[in-house]
């Protein structure tokens, strides 16, 4: 079990908890920005209606450039007024590598209506989980990250202009027991500090590629998993700084090597903790007689509907799974890189967009779906929210699976249009998500406000890319065009 102390449930408990502290750290947003607060200020905010936090965090990109169009939450017209930041006491932990300072996550409300704002990643996740709870469902999830490591510092990255970077190790060495010995302290610190930080891991090993690790976070509730996934990135980058290492969660840092995935595992449980995706014990030997295909015979009817919902809406929520320009360069299809680019599924298939993990390969209680589309650059709140929202829609509408599993498809099926392809760029993905009849716009999925705001942030990213002049262009056209 993780040594994370029990979260306080009252202001009185919180005051006692922080008795020996004089400052507290809080974090906000999917990029995990934040600040230190004095203990007095923090306790005052925790015991009242929260505290003001500048809305510009939802009005600028990861490099603090203001978005190029007016968005719903943060805009120039109101002068980037404060939002109401609400401290989530249940997220309490301490940062072991930072003087053991107390740490909390916050969520945001509109200061006028006191309602959650549509752009807050934690708020979006909370609404999806509450929707499940109203039906007697509990959302569970796991995340896996692949990420490159470089023997660099933030200063050396800038000095080298992000070129000719030195990998942490050389060669292709997936699951190597030797390569971890070359950076033993760093490798173990990632695992051990995660444990202390309340982000327990299930697996941690090298992956194929120069300096690549893969880390699987321990399966838990979806809300806690989204928090843990964003905090693991923060932890890895912080621990990396101590060791002169820069871990990169960029989806495709090398053109000729596999990219970095951010696979997510999802399942539903009932109020008693029993898997809703699992078939009854009476069907464990032969599987469901009414399954759509043999691949789904050990998936319950609700699980099959959930899967159909994910597949039906997948192309319409792609920016929530793959939010960057670079992320689409990872989705090349085929089995060489195991990065799917079509709406496909299959039993235990790593070539599919959605992998069914069920008996006989796992016990019934472990029945789940692995969505293999996201890269390591995903925002886990949005990615998990998208998968669950689509799955709920599938159950509610009792959707049928869109064609046979991946094992029964051919290359010609893709070429003939029998298999739906996923958007191949952030520009096309954003246009699809923002079109008038997008599934994402349905009120039971994400609604108009969210799509307009989040889609606007992705249009900004596309505009910056379209205006950029890359090294490739200069090398190709400067002399010979």
UniProtKB/TrEMBL annotation:
Establish whether keyword Transmembrane is in the entry: no
The record's comment on protein family reads: Belongs to the glutamine synthetase family.
**What does the record give under GO molecular function?**
ATP binding; glutamine synthetase activity
GO BP: any one term: biogenic amine metabolic process
GS catalytic domain boundaries: 121-481
> Is the keyword Nucleotide-binding assigned to this protein?
yes
**Keywords recorded for this protein, A-Z:** ATP-binding, Ligase, Nucleotide-binding
Return the protein name: GS catalytic domain-containing protein
Organism superkingdom: Eukaryota
């Amino acid at each position: 079990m993780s040594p994370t102390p029990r979260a306080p449930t009252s202001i009185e408990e919180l005051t006692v908890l922080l008795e020996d502290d004089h400052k507290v750290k809080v974090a906000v947003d999917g990029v995990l920005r934040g600040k230190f607060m004095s203990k007095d200020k923090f306790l005052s905010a925790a015991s009242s209606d929260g505290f003001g936090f500048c809305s510009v965090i939802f009005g600028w990109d990861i490099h603090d450039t203001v978005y190029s169009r007016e968005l719903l939450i943060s805009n120039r017209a109101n002068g980037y007024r404060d939002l109401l930041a609400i401290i989530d006491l249940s997220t309490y932990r301490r940062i072991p590598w930072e003087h053991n300072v107390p740490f909390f996550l916050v969520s945001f409300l509109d200061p006028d209506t006191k309602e959650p704002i549509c752009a807050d990643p934690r708020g979006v996740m909370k609404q999806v989980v509450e929707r499940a709870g109203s039906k007697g469902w509990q959302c569970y999830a796991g995340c896996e990250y692949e990420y490159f490591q470089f023997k660099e510092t933030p200063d050396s990255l800038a000095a080298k202009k992000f070129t000719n970077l030195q990998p942490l190790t050389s060669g292709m060495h997936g699951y190597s027991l030797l390569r971890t010995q070359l950076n033993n302290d760093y490798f173990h610190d990632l695992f051990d500090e995660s444990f202390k930080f309340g982000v327990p891991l299930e697996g941690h090993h090298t992956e194929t590629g120069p300096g690549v690790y893969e880390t699987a976070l321990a399966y838990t509730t979806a809300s806690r998993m989204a928090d843990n996934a964003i905090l693991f990135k923060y932890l890895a980058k912080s621990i990396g700084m101590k060791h002169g290492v820069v871990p990169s969660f960029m989806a495709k840092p090398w053109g000729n090597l596999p990219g970095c995935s951010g696979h997510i595992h999802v399942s539903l449980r009932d109020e008693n903790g029993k898997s809703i995706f699992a078939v009854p014990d009476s069907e464990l030997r032969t599987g469901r007689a009414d399954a759509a295909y043999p691949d789904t015979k050990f998936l319950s009817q609700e699980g099959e509907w959930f899967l159909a919902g994910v597949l039906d809406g997948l192309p319409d929520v792609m920016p929530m799974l793959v939010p960057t320009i670079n992320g689409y360069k990872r989705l090349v299809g085929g089995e060489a890189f195991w990065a799917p680019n079509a709406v496909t599924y299959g039993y235990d298939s790593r070539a599919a967009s959605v992998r069914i993990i069920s008996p006989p390969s796992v016990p019934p209680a472990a029945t789940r779906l692995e969505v293999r589309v996201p890269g390591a650059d995903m925002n886990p709140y949005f990615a998990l929210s998208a998968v669950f929202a689509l799955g709920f829609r599938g159950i509610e509408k009792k959707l049928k699976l869109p064609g046979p599993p991946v094992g029964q498809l051919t290359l010609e099926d893709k070429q003939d249009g029998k298999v739906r392809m996923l958007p191949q760029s952030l520009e096309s993905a954003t246009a699809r998500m923002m079109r008038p009849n997008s599934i994402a716009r349905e009120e039971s999925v994400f609604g108009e406000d969210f799509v307009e705001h989040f889609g606007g942030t992705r249009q900004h990213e596309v505009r910056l890319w379209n205006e950029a002049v890359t090294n490739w262009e200069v090398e190709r056209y400067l002399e010979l065009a």
